[in-house]
Amino acid sequence: MQKPAIKTKCPNFSSGPCAKRPGWSVDALKNALVGRSHRSKEGKASLNEVSDRMKKVLGLPQDYRIGVVAGSDTGAVELAMWTMLGPRPVDVFGWESFGKGWITDAVRYLKLPDVKEYKADYGKLPDMSKADPSHDVIFTFNGTTSGVKVPNLDWIRADREGLTICDATSGIFAMEMDYSKLDVITFSWQKVLGGEAAHGVIILSPRAVKRMEENEPKVSWPLPKLFRLAAEGKLKPGELEYSTVNTPSMLCVEDAIDALKWAESIGGCKALIARSSANLNALEKWVEKSDWIAFLAETKEIRSNTSVCFKITAPWFVKLSEEDRAKAAKKITSMLDKEGVACDINSYGKAPAGIRIWCGATVDTSDVEILTQWLDWAYSEVAAAYSKEAVK
């Protein structure tokens, strides 16, 4: 196969940190409050602005709280688990690396007495209907390492007694969400917004705030200061929005504001979802014509439109050992990295050998379409090399 003549304008297809918004440059950070305290009047104003813009773009209910916390999405999820769990049994759903990690936290570290684990292999989704409305529930909206999303939230009861804690980091801003079904939502700017890493965001419903305030004095495990949002028994006004417990990077805050302004300029969350969906559609058209690759997600209904994961189905590849499959897939992705066409598209280390392409809203569909041509070329080169080796 002939090498494609046109290269992608942006080769960044990493699943985190993800590609910056189209047209981004370091000039976007020129107004950042570097060297200033986040507790200053101006610092609080910037933090309040990023919280308000996130709330506006997402269309959150007015009584939901949102703010910046430490430790990226991981820190936000663990903050929720450490401060809110305990009063009720917990159902945890995990079908990829990070979701299964929350099971480990609940069982091994928090040592919760009544945890029900619902697991599935990469590419599959556990039976979400098994969630008990009287239990607290923890789940990942979109599995970044498996390319599998929750198709809807119909399985969550409106009259539930427990809380729903949703790790939404690679889904929010790119997928429709019924916020009334979610009490805690966590994410990181580094995903769909293309922001910087290290900072997490947590969204709390009134039910979640109430649980945090009531539960904090009762928890039977050490609670780090970073997690003590309601340390005096009350989540005060502004405690999340602009009076953060941790010290955030004002450069990262300015970058997030820039990303949100861009989102507003193109039409808000609906436009972000549309861009991600168009990228997935481009990949679906490619896969339909391909004889060597398929989606890792076992059904279209649960197929992610952000962290799109693929398995290589060519007979010669399938016959290889697990170790050799990983090496062959790595050769494909390394060729495209060397050509400056696509960086960081190898599958997650613990996932089946294959390819993972980030298709969030900051990625242009034209680049996705160009990338598919290069993928076919790189595959043909590697397949030919293995064919020659087999003849020997």
User: How many discrete structural domains?
Assistant: 2
Morphology call: globular
Overall mean pLDDT stands at: 96
Series of secondary-structure elements, N-terminal to C-terminal: HEHEHEEEEEEEHHHEEHHEH
Under CATH, the topology of the largest domain is which? Aspartate Aminotransferase, domain 2
The low-confidence runs, each spanning 5 or more residues with pLDDT under 50, are none
CATH architecture of the largest domain, by name, is 3-Layer(aba) Sandwich
Number of separate strands: 12
Helix content: 25-40%
How widely separated are the two ends?
22 Å
Largest sheet: 7 strands, mixed
Rg calculated over all Cα atoms: 22 Å
- At the first level of CATH, the class of the largest domain is Alpha Beta
Class by helix and strand content?
A: alpha/beta
Number of helices: 9
- Strand arrangement, largest sheet? 1-9-8-7-4-2-3
| Beta-strand proportion | 5-15%
The CATH homology group name of the largest domain:
Type I PLP-dependent aspartate aminotransferase-like (Major domain)
Topology (SSEs and partners):
Blueprint: H1 41-58, E1 65-70, H2 72-84, E2 90-94, H3 97-109, E3 115-119, E4 136-140, E5 142-143, E6 148-149, E7 164-167, E8 184-188, E9 199-204, H4 206-215, H5 250-266, H6 268-289, E10 293-295, E11 307-312, H7 315-318, H8 322-338, E12 354-358, H9 365-391
Parallel strand pairs: 2-3, 2-4, 4-7, 7-8
Antiparallel strand pairs: 1-9, 5-6, 8-9, 10-11, 11-12
